[in-house]
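Sample 1 of the test manifest.
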Amino acid sequence: MKSVQKVDLTKIKPYGDTLNDGMVQMSFTLPVPYGDEASEAARQLAAKMGFDEPAVVYSKDLGVGYTYFVMYGKCSHTVDYTSIEVPKVSMEFMEREEVEEYIAENIKRDVVIVGACTGTDAHTVGIDAIMNMKGFDGHFGLERYKGIDAINMGSQVSNEELIAKAIESKADAILVSQVVTQKDVHVANLTELVEMIEAEALRDKLILVCGGPRISHDLAQELGYDAGFGSGSYANHVASFVVKQIVEKNLI
Amino acid sequence: MRLIETIKDNNYETISIIGLAKNAGKTVTLNYLIEEADNYNINVGITSTGRDGERIDLVTQTEKPPILVTEGMYLATAKKALLLSTAKTEILETTGITTAMGEVIIVRIRQRGYIEVAGPVSARDMKYVAERLKYYGAEIVFIDGAIDRKAVSSPLITDACIIATGAVLSRDMKKVLEKTAHEVECYSLKEVASHVKEIFKKVNKTSILQEDGSTITPNIVTSITGGKKINELINEKTTHVFVKGAVTSALLKDLRENKYLRGIKLIVEDGTKIFTDINLWNGMKRKGFKVETMNKINVLAVTLNPISPAGYFFDSQLLKESMEKILPGIKILDVVSGGDEE
């Protein structure tokens, strides 16, 4: 019996049918009319992207002279997985009960957290997963936490409304979620919020957290936030960070 | 006069470089200034409110220009960014200020090379770091703004600013010109008469000044939502309205319908506090609405990047000429196609 081929983590590439075949499926649209010439253009483009044996497996006429393609190609590049380092919020996360205890022992009052999905973004999945009672993937949301007053403003909230709510409710922390973006509008939305908070002279009085699939801790800090939580973050991660920061920054 | 000479002549010590968008050309502008300072034998200090000098952009994954420094310059950067720099440095101080890339460290450049800069993100920490750079011997401190953040250009932190703008703002050159002109206008608003300034400085809250010199302080927590109340308190005797904090579209919309609008001046803290829709702002100005500022921001120059990473570009000559036309009296530099000054 042949032994199973081992993965070389210093040279990883996509897996299709067999290890290291580099197989990639991709799709894109070209602004040319449907036909053989369009498919050849797509094939040549994929070759320029660095794919070996590019092939169009599906194409569809989108009308108005545009064509959509699904393509296969073999990626010839590799990445050294062992050398990758992604800055994350580095702390020991507490479980819900521990967060509740921590608040009772160290803060001794309710922690107010205001959350919203800002700008034109109508996708509340992120903020709901963190804030709503039922939470997500077996992790209860902030509304369920004893000692946390969680205010979920929902979607398409303007930065002005969010700040006004935070001031009115004497919030300790603001959570902003940005899920869907176009032309990096999420970045402009996030910086505008920080700028307004700086303008209102509130930056030192608030913990500012953002989250979403395109947000890393790195980017969040660059934008002037205290932390950024990407996909796979749960309410207890955010809660741990916020309550510890309240104590650290002496905002009790 | 060359930009660096203007800075020296006015004794400006801290200069912020802010971008109106990502990829507007802040780093190219910074490199230009570093080179100029080097030619004039001026020791500069460099720091950044975000990360800069990294080769690949965090958001767009596009290539970015590196930052080259020479011996005798000073730098405030995070520990991990320092380890990625090729310039040889001598550590002067560890500040205790933390960033995503570790603690901010102040160093002196010993041997020329490339650097990565990641300085403090909050405006308050930045003020401290700029002071320390000057303390060690930097004659001019350049603060590179992150992405499109501008709080650092507040006169409370820096003496003057340079605004980087370019094709990345919009595919429509008219929009680029309009947005840049609006920003420069907000920054260079006229300073309010000194006796009025003194009154508002003393009140230090959003307030309304009457003809007889008395002030009314509306009972509001923030002017963002306090527009209606401010509006009710304005009468025929009102001369000035001072807004402490953010001046937003919501506030302006509340003031728009006020029948005494023509007779009053709105006073802002400084240009970085204005967050309004351009059309609303311009529309109200046409109706006779006047805005002045407590603290003027010195705009030293506007730098242009005629190329957008999204794959389009403008005729650099045309962009420069159009910009000069709408911003008379402001130095316009195309640092990408060639930053030569007359």
